[in-house]
């Protein structure tokens, strides 16, 4: 290893010992950086008085990473860096441009110990330069249940080399990246938990591919296994940041998750592995402004707000309580909502600001109170979505429809049946809540 990387590792170890955890007592929202999010990140972190952003090498140069991380730190935020090494042979040009990305290695294997050591050293050096409070260790995507033994073998080599470099410990985050088919396997979930148990890291950065490319997921098995995996990790005494999330993943509060990360475009609210390939079609080409109704747990295109207005159900979409009103109220007072200048940027920031409040309010002092809170939110969503649909107001794939709602309830109840007893006993220790 070169002297610069060695020196950077020493500095990194000395500056990460006393970092605070991401969340205290309640689940927290982190920003998942994606295309075009630099201004959004600065604005939101400043408005929120702090927060965590998970930076994306796919979407930024080294210089941009350094600048944004510096900006985030200056306004009280904390930068993390997702190495995005999910597909080692990914050909996305910006990913490959970063120094830590291997220039070449054999097709017959992923990386050998020496290659892992070089990658990890350079990655830790980059994370130190941009001021990350923790190293997120890279993680290859577990592509299928039949390959899980080979995947665990690669994970073990990675962990051994991280340990030899002195970057393994309670301030370290280990990436666990799973395809939709691996998440669907109960056996794989058990094997992954057994693998995690023996690793000396304080945090897991969990990334899971949605089944069939869905945005909101209507498969109770997939959802149930994500909840079970998260709860299992927390019960092992490790913290969990779940990446690439949308509002359905508020359900993770019932599993004791420390934080979820979300962003602007759909490809940072779910995890499409293909986005790390050069041929990926950027969602930015299909622009459309969506309005998020937090009580309905649903998003609607602006023309459907016109339909709601004509059908006298527009008030069902208006955010109540403490949800942000600035820039939104005019949609509910104008004769034609779609004619109001409600920009894409305003829509993104409204979504993330609402989600942040929901995330903070999702966790309660006990497991049962958290469970009942989530069930009540879903019941209210069902009521509103049904009334809106009856008036012709549809979310075009982004509404919390009956299939999504029922799958989420089934997953929550499955978690309660399987792990409810131990989560009740352990709730105060894994969440820091004062209740029992």
Structure, described:
44% of the residues lie in helices and 11% in strands. It is built from 13 helices and eleven strands. The chain has helices at 3-15, 38-48, 62-74, 93-97, 113-129, 148-164, 180-183, 186-197, 220-235, 302-310, 344-362, 367-390, 402-431, and strands spanning 28-32, 51-55, 77-81, 136-137, 141-142, 173-178, 203-208, 239-242, 259-262, 290-293, 298-301. The strands form two sheets. Strands 1, 2, 3, 4, 5, 6, 7, 8 and 9 form a nine-stranded parallel sheet that branches. Strand 10 and strand 11 form a beta hairpin. Helix 8 packs parallel to helix 9 (220-235). The N and C termini lie far apart (49 Å).
Short description:
By secondary structure, the protein is an alpha/beta fold. The chain contains 13 helices and 11 strands.
- In percent, how much strand structure appears in the residues? 5-15%
- How many helices? The count is 13
How would a textbook summarize the main sheet? 9 strands, parallel
What is the mean predicted local confidence, pLDDT? 91
Question: How many strands in all?
Answer: 11
**Radius of gyration (Å):** 21 Å
Q: Helical percent range?
A: 40-55%
Ranges where pLDDT stays below 50 over 5 or more residues in a row are 7-24
Overall 3D shape: globular
* Assembly level: single chain
Structural class: alpha/beta
Query: For the terminal residues, how far apart are their CA atoms?
Result: 49 Å
SSE ordering:
HEHEHEHHEEHEHHEHEEEEHHHH
């Amino acid at each position: 290893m070169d002297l610069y990387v060695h020196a950077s590792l020493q500095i990194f170890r000395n500056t990460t010992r006393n970092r605070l955890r991401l969340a205290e007592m309640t689940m927290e929202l982190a920003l998942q950086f994606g295309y075009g999010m630099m201004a959004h990140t600065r604005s939101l972190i400043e408005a929120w008085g702090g927060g965590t952003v998970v930076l994306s090498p796919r979407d930024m140069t080294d210089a941009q990473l350094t600048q944004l991380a510096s900006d985030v730190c200056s306004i009280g935020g904390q930068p993390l860096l997702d190495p995005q090494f999910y597909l080692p042979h990914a050909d996305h040009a910006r990913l490959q441009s970063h120094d830590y990305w291997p220039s070449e290695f054999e097709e017959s294997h992923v990386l050998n110990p020496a290659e892992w050591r070089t990658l990890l050293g350079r990655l830790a050096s980059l994370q130190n330069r941009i001021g990350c409070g923790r190293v997120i260790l890279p993680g290859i995507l577990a592509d299928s249940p039949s390959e899980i033994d080979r995947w665990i073998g690669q994970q073990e080599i990675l962990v051994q080399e991280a340990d030899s470099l002195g970057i393994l410990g309670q301030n370290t985050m280990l990436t666990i990246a799973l395809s939709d088919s691996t998440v669907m396997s109960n056996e794989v979930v058990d094997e992954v938990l057994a693998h995690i148990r023996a690793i000396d890291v304080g945090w897991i950065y969990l990334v899971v591919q949605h089944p069939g490319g869905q945005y909101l997921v209507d498969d109770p098995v997939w959802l149930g296994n994500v909840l079970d995996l998260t709860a299992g990790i927390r019960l092992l005494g490790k913290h969990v940041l779940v990446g690439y999330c949308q509002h359905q993943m508020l359900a993770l509060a019932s599993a004791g998750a420390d934080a979820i990360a979300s962003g602007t475009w759909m490809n940072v609210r779910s995890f499409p592995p293909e986005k790390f390939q050069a041929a990926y079609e950027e969602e930015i080409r299909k622009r459309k402004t969506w309005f998020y109704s937090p009580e309905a747990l649903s998003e609607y295109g602006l023309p459907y707000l016109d339909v709601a207005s004509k059908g006298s159900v527009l008030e069902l979409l208006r955010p109540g309580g403490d949800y942000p009103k600035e820039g939104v109220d005019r949609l509910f007072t104008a004769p034609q909502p779609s004619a109001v200048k409600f920009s894409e940027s305003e829509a993104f920031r409204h979504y993330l600001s609402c989600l942040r409040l929901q995330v903070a309010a999702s966790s309660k002092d006990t497991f049962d109170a958290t469970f009942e809170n989530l069930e009540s939110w879903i019941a209210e969503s069902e009521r509103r979505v049904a009334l809106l649909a009856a008036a012709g107001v549809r979310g075009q794939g982004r509404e919390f429809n009956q299939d999504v709602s029922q799958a989420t309830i089934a997953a929550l109840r499955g978690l309660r049946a399987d792990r409810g007893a131990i989560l009740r006993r352990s709730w105060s220790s894994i969440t820091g809540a004062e209740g029992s």
